[in-house]
Write a structure and sequence with these properties.
The chain is of the alpha/beta class. The protein has 6 helices and 12 strands. Helix 1 (22-34) packs across helix 6 (172-185).
């Protein structure tokens, strides 16, 4: 049975054409769907994106919208899945970084897991914020002005909108629950 707490709310999932950690895309996606929301896959190119299970190719997913055609105003929240190559590629895309920056300036939630905060660094969206990530990003996040902590889930509400971060796939239950909770609060 589908819950309706996110009924009528679209959630943007921004990914690069390849290198996405599949479970970090599919688990929050499923949580949004089960709560009655509409997940939308956005990428820097049309077609399909290639997900990975760590270093092994996994499934492909159809892109719904190219980021250059996406408007922040259409979405209640932004989810940034991880994978090492995915955020590294996103942070080299001017359009993807601008989209993330526009979200960061809005009151809408942003959720990033594992290596995804690299894209937040490029968009200058972590300065003065408390975050977590995969441990190897700690120095990058601190250098970008964030307070980095090693916790399963961090929800920072000090900025215009909530910033939800988690470290790794083992944190996905808490991460997905926080995404649904904060998307449900948008506009209420």
């Amino acid at each position: 049975m589908t819950d309706t707490q996110l009924q009528g709310k679209k959630v943007a999932f921004l990914v690069a054409p390849e290198g996405i950690e599949q479970v970090e895309l599919t688990e929050p996606w499923k949580a949004v769907q089960e709560a009655g929301g509409e997940p939308v896959l956005i990428s820097t190119r049309a077609g399909q994106v290639q997900a990975f299970d760590h270093l092994d190719k996994a499934d492909t997913f159809d892109v719904d919208v190219v980021v250059s055609d996406a408007s922040v105003s259409e979405y209640a929240a932004l989810v940034l899945p991880g994978g090492v190559a995915n955020p590294d590629a996103l942070r080299t895309s001017r359009e993807a970084v601008a989209f993330v920056g526009q979200f960061a300036a809005s009151t809408r939630p942003i959720a990033a897991i594992c290596h995804a905060p690299w894209t937040l660094v490029e968009a200058d969206a972590v300065r003065g914020r408390r975050v977590t990530s995969w441990p190897s990003l700690a120095t990058d996040l601190r250098n970008a002005g964030a307070e980095w902590v090693d916790e399963q889930l961090v929800v920072d509400t000090s900025g215009p909108g909530p910033l939800i971060t988690s470290r790794e796939p083992d944190d996905l239950d808490a991460f997905s629950e926080a995404v649904v909770e904060h998307v449900a609060a948008v506009g209420s």
